[in-house]
Amino acid sequence: MPPPRRQSGPSGDSGRRGGKPPVSRGGKPPVSRGGKPPATRPMRVEGAARPEREDRTPRPPEPPLADDIQAKDLDRGVRAGLRSLSDTLAEKIARHLVAAGLALDEDPELALTHARYARALAPRLAVSREAVGVAAYRAGDYTTALSELRAVRRMTGDPSYLPVLADCERGLGRPERALALMRDADVRRLAPADRVELAIVESGARRDRGEMQAAVVALQGPALRRPEVAPWTARLWYAYAAALLDAGRVEEAKKWFGSVAEIDVEGETDAEERLDELG
Fold first, then answer.
1. pLDDT at residue 24 above 70?
2. Which of 156, 99, 163, 168 is nearest to 130 (CA)?
3. What's the pLDDT band for 57 if we cut at 50, 70, 90?
4. Which among 209, 131, 130 is positioned nearest to 169, based on CA atoms?
5. Is residue 124 a contact partner of residue 81, using CB atoms and an 8 Å limit?
């Protein structure tokens, strides 16, 4: 099937200079060539969260905050999750969550430091657990990311981090567990963009197991054939090109990398570099 050409719409959030992970070059977890993760989705938890066990871990030292970091800059949905706290405590947590978000792209370890401090102040809040999970994922601490984002799912019932959980399993060298999440009952509740991310992770997990043709098949379907460009299109096409390449279908891979390069007007992926490498 020839790769669709660009119609109209935004460039995708890619595979893999920028945009959210779950995968980087060649469908691998984001450990090289950078990129923004499912983690860059807005941190949101609406309504009251079910209580989690009290965390008795000693509180870490407070990381410094720049004077221009303001609680009012926190996403409104996240601020809603802080309503049960005193104004003073909510403001402090909000400022550290803002700092974590600002640092996430360039310094995920710093983002994790701020998120962990916010979590220590309010360990029973889903918003602080989510912040730690997202930052840990971006920093490559997949064990912590799994623990925190599983807790968020228990507390909120929101399955939207299933692709990230699956990719964490890949990052820990457990592709079988990643594939098991593809059968989770909540997959049907995922938004279309999250289903695409889950398919990308499934393809990568298949490749981890040496199942190259199955990795290609995992990405085939209506989303791949969609003529309009969606925010996730470049990521999906890129992952498909990488899967084709690993399956030995070099000429097809080159065509799909070329399609990614056409829609990636901001240069967020390394599709052009991959094309140069392939000659």
1. no
2. 156
3. low
4. 209
5. no
